[in-house]
Predict the 3D structure of the following.
Amino acid sequence: MMLTYDEDRALARLEAVSLSHRAAFAAACAQRIVGNYYVFHFSEGFGDPDVLVRALSRVWELLPSVEIGAYDREVLASLVSQCFDLAPDTWDFPESNGRLLSTPWCRPSCGIRRTTCAL
C-alpha cells in the first residue's frame, strides 16, 4: 500500500487536537530533521544549528505543562520566528539540496552526536 500526503486532511487532524499536542507534533518533526540541518550547516557554512537546538529544548520543557500560558506562547512565537530566519532558500543552495537528501550516513568529523543525527 502506498501512502499519500493529503495536506487538507493533515491540517484538519492537527486543528482537532490541543495546542500542546500540535506543539509536540511540530517538535517531534523538527527533532527528526535537526541532524540534516547540522549537516547542511557544516557543508555550507549557513545558519546556526544551536539556535534550533535551544528552541527545541525550550519547546520540550514547555510541553509537559497542562496549559501553555500567554508568556510561553510569546516565547514560542519568538522561537518559531528565529527558526524561520535560519531556514535557507533552497534556490540559494541548489547543489546541497539533492546531496543532503541522499546522504546515508553521518560524518564523524561534523560533530553531530549519532542520536541527534536524522540521516
Remarks:
- Helices lie at 7-15, 19-44, 49-62, 70-86, 94-102.
- The chain has one domain: 18-110.
- Confidence is low (pLDDT under 50) at residues 101-119.
